[in-house]
Design goal:
Structural class: alpha+beta
CATH architecture of the largest domain: Sandwich
Number of domains: 2
């Protein structure tokens, strides 16, 4: 973490907005294969790299490639065949096979240009154990507008595995426009929200809810439910919240601005043409035009 902030202030290498890592949080099952996506800018650079940062630890380089050559150099600890990359124009995806617990970390895609290192926002990889516990988040069914109230739902179901102490659910928000080095964002402090649980002989089912009132543009993003159950932390699949329409969107859209600008330019050209024509006619007929002053 210290190296991360040193890199920010000394080299100015972090937060390159042109490097895209679309998933800030990526959850999968332990032992599965996973692909962490990275989309590169259309700019000149010398090398492309992948770095890994364990929680609370320094950055570690995984791989390095020269521009778009197919040859990739993997460092010690990452050259066992489980790590691979896909390289093509604008793409530098990282593949991890047969994921292990030590793969839980934040992965940064970066480029090196003129001796400086530029990172994307990073992707935090969370691995859930194969278990009878399921955490499901329901999508927002209705269209959402600014000022609306909504309720986000997270269902937790355990089969043949009952736990004492109940479930503890926390909600996190991930917004694409955030530039902070943090990967998961909370809506204020972490708080426990509504919980309704039902038990029967074979399974336990709980529903956790998060109510959002008077929505604004700043509430857009992906909301993740993290549940502490049976001594394990399980992440949901995420609920994406976007607005179907926003007041004033038409007046600020690029297309609208282009149309307005073209109309203004056309009007100016017409006025100039009329003025030139009037001037020519006035000169030929000897008629002078006088404009009354307001002074």
């Amino acid at each position: 973490l210290l190296l991360f902030f040193i890199c920010i202030f000394i080299f100015g290498c972090v937060g390159a907005q042109s490097i895209e890592q679309p998933k800030r949080l990526q959850a999968t099952k332990l032992g599965d294969n996973v692909t962490i996506e990275c989309y590169l800018p259309n700019k000149d650079f010398n090398n492309i790299v992948w770095y890994k940062q364990d929680m609370g630890m320094k950055l570690q380089i995984i791989s390095k490639s020269y521009i778009y050559l197919t040859k990739v150099d993997f460092t010690d600890g990452y050259n066992d065949g489980r790590f691979n990359v896909t390289i093509s124009k604008g793409i530098y995806h990282l593949h991890i096979s047969l994921t292990k617990k030590e793969d839980i970390a934040t992965y940064f895609c970066g480029v090196i240009t003129l001796g400086e290192l530029y990172f994307g926002p990073g992707t935090f990889l969370m691995l859930n154990e194969h278990t009878s516990i399921m955490v499901l988040q329901e999508p927002v069914s209705d269209k959402v507008h600014i000022g609306d109230n909504i309720t986000l739902t997270c269902r937790v179901q355990t089969v043949d595995e009952k736990c004492e102490g109940g479930h503890h659910a926390y909600w996190f928000r991930e917004a694409a426009e955030e530039s902070s080095p943090g990967i998961i964002y909370t809506d204020g402090d972490m708080k426990k929200h509504g919980e309704i649980c039902k038990d029967d002989s074979t399974k336990q089912s709980c529903v956790h809810t998060l109510k959002k009132r008077n929505l604004s543009l700043s509430d857009a993003g992906t909301y993740y439910c993290a549940v502490l159950v049976c001594g394990k932390i399980m992440f949901g699949n995420g609920t994406y919240l976007e607005f179907s329409s926003t007041p004033g969107k038409l007046t600020t859209s690029p297309l609208f601005l282009i149309l307005v600008s073209s109309n203004i330019i056309s009007m100016i050209i017409m006025i100039l043409l009329v003025a030139v024509q009037c001037k020519d006619q006035g000169s030929s007929s000897g008629i002078m035009f006088f404009f009354k002053s307001n002074s």
